[in-house]
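#onboarding

Welcome to the new folks! Below is a worked example of what a typical request in this channel looks like: someone posts a single protein sequence, and someone else replies with the predicted structure as tokens. Don't worry about understanding the tokens yet, we'll cover that in week two.

Example request:
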Amino acid sequence: MNSANLTREETAARSAAVTARSIRVELDLTGAPEHDRSGFPTISTVEFDSEVDETWLDFIGESVDRLVVNGEEREVRWDGARIALEGLTAHNTVRVEAVGAYSRSGEGLHRFHDPADGETYLYTQYEPADARRVMACFEQPDMKAAYAFDVTAPAGWHVLSNQRPSAVHKGIGIVRVEFEPTLPISSYITAVAAGPYARIDAEWTRGDQRVDLAVLCRASLAEHLEADEVIEVTRQGLDFFSEAFAYPYPWGKYDQIFVPEYNLGAMENPGLVTFTESYITRGAATDAQRGSRANTILHEMAHMWFGDLVTMKWWDDLWLKESFADYMGTHASAAATRFTDAWARFANSRKTWAYRQDQLATTHPIVADIPDLEAAKLNFDGITYAKGAAVLKQLVAFVGEDAFFEGARRYFVAHAFGNTTLSDLLDTLEEVSGHDMREWSRAWLQTSGVAALHLETDAEGRRVLVQDGGDAGPRPQRLRVGLYDRAESGLALRERLEFGIRDERTEVEIPDADLTLLNDDDLTYAKARLDERSLDTVEDALTALADDLPRGLVWSALWNMTRDGELPVARYLRIVRSHARREPNVGLLTAVLANAAYAVQHYTPHAERPGERTAWVDATWDGLQAADAGSDAQLAWARAFATASAYDDSRAERLAAILDGDAPQGLPMDADLRWLMLTSLATTGHADAARIAEENRTDDTAAGRTAAVRALASRPDGQVRADAWASAWNDRTLSNDHLDATIAGFRAGGRRDLTEFFDAEYFVRIRDAWAQRSIEIAKRLVVGLFPATETTALVDEWLAANQDAPSALRRLVIEQRDDLARDIRVRAAQPA
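Example response:
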């Protein structure tokens, strides 16, 4: 095994024998603006107690130049990932002088040179185990310590870390910032950012508590930063969580920084939360996009308690922070901000992610078996986040909201600044609720798979609620059933019935209705099926449902039935074409448009696909024409029209006309929308390299350059696609964003006639890529370039011949195979 891939057993043994006390990290970032400078000096001074005479520190970088143990020079024994420590005593101080490597993959200390103004920006991203790319440390969550950072950077830069500066020393052309030590935290949530960021300051107060707030982004994006709304949501969140958790925000200040080429949506570093710049739009944004950003702000804020204050011992219990944060982000959005439709968006987008992940062959319990770091990296998935959040919503219905929050309060008090396991949380919830949480945990947290719910009428005319739990079996759950009738005003709710069910079949008293909506209010985690009468009703009158949540649940049910092969794709697309134009919630509309586009490209039989592609382009064009000028719906339809036009060029002239200035009234033609349209034209051969270069000259920004990479690679030419293929695998200078753009260009338009020649080569390359590239980059290659073959023969052959491949790599390949097999299966299930 690669020594960088730490295992659960060896880290548990290390934390049992070694107690971390403090780590002081000195970073010299003054050379960062020099493009040719690949590394930076880093000095770590680690104080710890030890019951053994040898252990190791984790570090990945360019070199380890000096090792001092308890004042004595020692020979450096470093294998590229671990620094061996020997001759330890009960109390130890170790100093490591090394050179770290600037990152272009978003792992460790990422360096970005902004083409818009030539400025340089740095930020760190560590989860789950990349702090060791910046400092020598104990890289595991259960070895918390006080971290003190000392950072030297070019003068004029903002330099930030988890804590406030304790001293600032200004020199000639440089500034040195010493930060106060943190409270005990894990290595993966320490953070540093440095650069000439634009900064907006504010504060939040509650009683005697005062917290300094700051929002930062690159200077060239400052005009687009909606800082006022970010600050407003931040204040609303701090008010909500301080009240709900009855534990004061513990981390002093609250900085939020939007950074370039970020691999995640955001990261909960206490006192310095990092966000992807995707949350900053360079032009128009829908309210759903702002709602998503608010949800992420509150998700990360929930981590200040769930994850940062109380941290899981190992990555098996990753859900102890991510599921809770996902639930709390949505709950707080709906309860404390203007985005009161948060649960409707959750039901129709986040849960879609969970349902997909939970039906793969690699599904796993929410409390997963994570033997090593490679497995941990892949477990930041729809089960850990969205399924876990949905199950917590069921838990709140099971024990009651008051008991749930009282349990959280006691949990924080009992385990503040410590590490926990599932048992610790269950003990607390049992204490406050009086329920047997072990049974609930076994059913929900320690099994995998998603149940499907449907109604049957037995031979005696009795209604039976059927819970098909698959291998997991039936689960105890509470749910509501909504009965809706056709009325002049639309579909009117007659009543909601609430049931507690435990068995596979439960006799229930449910009267007939035009629409019987199982799991109304979305209290539980299950795929709710629509009976034939309900299907007929929603086909005629779906958007006559006035409330966002039940309407979102119907859209979700239709999509799940389609991807399970139970609802013909043609019927699903007919419903979308009929009702999407009347969908008033832009968050639901955006999800429906994305699902419909996916259904056209993946689930429609090949013989029918050209017709469905044209019908979908026409539908998106009609939706764009019908939408109110300047509305969120108009923007959503414009994006859908541009995306659909990459697969069918029947309206290429209209698309080109919009790009040339003949846009529908009110449509904001910002740079990002222009690139989306131009890329579609390039994909279908209606825009050449010169046209792309012209657009890039107009938008010579980081986003513009990335978009140009994608557009150039999208051109429908065999040599262009071959060049993109070679660049993706071989060009080590590509950043994470440029790699994604290259892969997207290679796959653009679903042009298998241009890409099928590389199918066999993919399976030759992936093991070497996994061995030679960072896991982040290798994952993008393995997932992004997986071939959409007509059978699973090639992937099955690789899996059979590579039983000894790393388990994380096999998991990715198996998941891609599952998606391919579903595509083939659903296409085959379509009626003639």
